[in-house]
Specification:
The chain is of the alpha/beta class and 277 residues long. 47% of the residues lie in helices and 20% in strands. The model has no long low-confidence stretch (mean pLDDT 96). It has helices at residues 8-16, 23-30, 40-48, 66-75, 86-99, 137-147, 167-177, 186-195, 209-216, 221-234, 236-243, 245-263; strands at residues 56-60, 78-83, 105-109, 122-128, 148-161, 198-205, 266-275. The chain contains twelve helices and seven strands. The longest helix is centred in the last third of the chain and has 19 residues, at 245-263. It has a domain at 40-208 and 265-275: Rossmann fold (3-Layer(aba) Sandwich). Helix 6 (137-147) crosses helix 8 and helix 10 packs across helix 12. A seven-stranded mixed sheet has the order 3-2-1-4-5-7-6, sandwiched between helices.
Length: 277
């Protein structure tokens, strides 16, 4: 939007005029924390749904089973992790052995679209940050509905696009990170749930909270990613020669992903869904 030259003086006065408080008070107001929640809120949310030692948990897209093991440690549940990437399953064995949860946790290769389990086998499903990669989202959610017992719950954490994400930004992110564009819509996710017999029981907008939490507690995840973006852009040719173009582009996109969450271009959400039966 272009500035109207006739209104320039008014705009300058609004920008630089008296705002009714001192510079110190203005800075202090902007530095006030909003008390952001951190990532442990997901563990706590599943516990609040009643997960305990009598339950069977499925972690879809478990990666190295870190979250699977932590849930078993906290709540004493039996847990199965599945992931389609063989390297992740190999890593998960080391994590499980080192966690002390080998008696409760196991991990095997498997896809959400074809879960290697029988009907009505699980009391809870943990689905963290992986639905963006599922080509047939409806088929994956239908499988989740199939393996859940009556009265069971599924906790989903996922990042969605907002209206602030520009088409060019989205294209670069999705290509580099193997994201299915259709899965970046909350409306599409909720419609897919409804279409396979899952009801949205709770919807929690996390937005930038985790990013704020990491900055306020000194972890600095997003500020490090912003610095990495600057360095990667300036050192592009040498890094591509060392790492390869695919690795370079995926890491650059991953850093943008975090910064875009802080800027509101991407919005993490937590859902609790349950079978309608």
């Amino acid at each position: 939007m272009m500035i109207d030259p006739q209104n320039l003086d008014q705009i300058l006065n609004e920008l630089y005029g008296d705002i009714g408080m001192s510079d110190e008070a203005f800075e202090a107001r902007l530095e006030r924390s909003l008390g952001p929640r951190g990532p442990d809120m997901l563990y706590e949310a599943l516990g609040a749904l009643g997960l305990n030692q009598d339950h069977d948990l499925l972690d879809v897209g478990c990666r190295d089973a870190t979250h699977t093991c932590e849930l078993a440690r906290r709540y004493g549940c039996r847990a199965l992790g599945i992931d389609p990437v063989a390297h992740n399953i190999a890593r998960s064995r080391t994590v499980i052995d080192g966690s002390g949860q080998a008696g409760r946790v196991r991990a095997i290769e498997g896809r959400i679209e074809a879960i290697p389990a029988g009907d009505n086998e699980f009391d809870f499903i943990w689905c963290r940050d992986m639905l963006n990669h599922v080509l047939d989202l409806r088929a994956g959610l239908a499988e989740c509905a199939r393996v859940l017992r009556p009265g069971a719950k599924m906790l989903v954490y996922q990042t969605f696009a907002t209206d602030l994400l520009e088409p060019g930004e989205a294209a670069r992110l999705y290509q580099a990170l193997a994201v299915v564009p259709a899965n970046m819509s909350t409306a599409a996710f909720e419609a897919a749930c409804q279409g396979v017999g899952l009801r949205v029981a709770k919807r929690d907008t996390i937005a930038s909270e985790w990013r704020e939490y990491w900055e306020e507690t000194g972890v600095g995840t997003t500020s490090r990613q912003l610095l990495r973006i600057a360095r990667m852009r300036r050192d592009r040719e040498r890094l591509i020669a060392e790492l390869g173009l695919v690795v370079y582009e995926s890491e650059l996109a991953n850093c943008h992903w975090g910064v875009y969450q802080m800027l509101g271009k991407l919005c993490p959400m937590m859902y609790v869904v349950e079978p309608r039966r």
